[in-house]
Design brief:
The protein has 302 residues and is α+β, with helices and mostly antiparallel strands. The protein has twelve helices and seven strands.
């Protein structure tokens, strides 16, 4: 069986996008005027307004799709018109598509995803809950153009950026080694390092990251060996990148500095490839001690 490929919408997808969505809407509800507008002209009603459409394709056929609608706030998008072909629903394609959509949104520096659905769509609601969406009371939801909407949900893509107190609590959990391993993402690394750098400077931030990461790895069941766990070169590289970024701008508060740094670098986990060839950064020496870049020097080294 051909693998499912996730990609951006193309003009030739227009008919399949309309058909897939009309099938599920008409099965459970009825088409509304807003449906007719967006499904009849996805380029004009979604893409031209700052939104996106992502699709799942198998063997040249669209088997799923999801739109990300622009919202008044630049850091929010609405998940809409998400559906999977009936033949694919036992294959886990829906979850994979949604996870792809979430990763795409993060890469666009989006902080919050919002959606509206209906209690009839029990499987969809369970899927949204499973990937982290939380229910909103109706009074916190935006006015909906759909009569069928009676469930409102949102997903904070970086929960530690919800407020200054949320960030402080997040760092405290990491320091106490109680932060769940699943939350120790690349963006979390960036946030903690930026948090220290903004308040204590580069040298102290690097010291705390050097000491903290290996201990945290062990606390959550990991190891620090010659081939896994703590990586000295990558830790030093990222500490320097973050320090350079913060030094070039002025921020009103440390929280604002962290927020800006995460939105800039939170999804750049492969940025080291700009500076290092694979063999150098993968070598045990680079994991054990600082090795200068062999492809592109850091700005202060030029």
């Amino acid at each position: 069986m051909f693998e499912v490929v996730f990609r951006n919408f193309k003009p030739q997808d227009r008919e399949a996008f309309r058909t897939l969505n009309e099938q599920w809407i008409e099965k459970y509800f009825q088409l509304e005027e807003k449906d007719r507008q967006s499904l009849g002209d996805p380029e004009g009603q979604i893409l031209a307004k700052g939104g996106h459409i992502l699709v799942a394709e198998r063997d040249g056929q669209l088997v799923g799709c999801c739109a990300l609608m622009a919202m008044p706030e630049n850091d929010r998008l609405e998940v809409a018109k998400m559906t999977i072909a009936e033949s694919e629903r036992v294959q886990g394609v829906g979850r994979r598509l949604l996870e792809h959509v979430i990763c795409f949104a993060k890469e666009c520096s989006i902080r919050t995803l919002y959606l509206e659905t209906n209690t009839k769509l029990e499987s969809a609601v369970r899927l949204y809950e499973a990937v982290g969406f939380r229910h909103l009371p109706p009074e916190q939801a935006k006015p909906s153009p759909y009569a069928r909407a009676n469930v409102f949900m949102e997903l904070q893509l970086h929960p530690f950026l919800a407020s200054e107190s949320a960030l402080c609590e997040f760092v405290a959990e990491w320091e106490a080694r109680t932060l769940p391993k699943a939350q120790w993402t690349h963006a979390a690394h960036v946030a903690v390092c930026a948090f220290y750098t903004a308040q204590l400077g580069h040298t102290e931030a690097l010291r705390r990251m050097r000491e903290g990461i290996p201990v945290y790895n062990l606390a959550v069941g990991g190891q620090n060996t010659a081939d896994s766990g703590y990586h000295e070169t990558l830790t030093c590289l990222w500490a320097q990148i973050i320090a350079d970024f913060l030094a070039t701008q002025q921020f009103a508060t440390p929280f604002a500095a962290v927020e800006s740094t995460v939105l800039r670098y939170g999804q750049e986990r492969k940025l080291h490839e700009t500076f290092y060839t694979f063999d150098v950064v993968a070598d045990r020496l680079a994991r054990r001690e600082w090795v200068p870049p062999d492809k592109t020097p850091l700005p202060q080294d030029k």
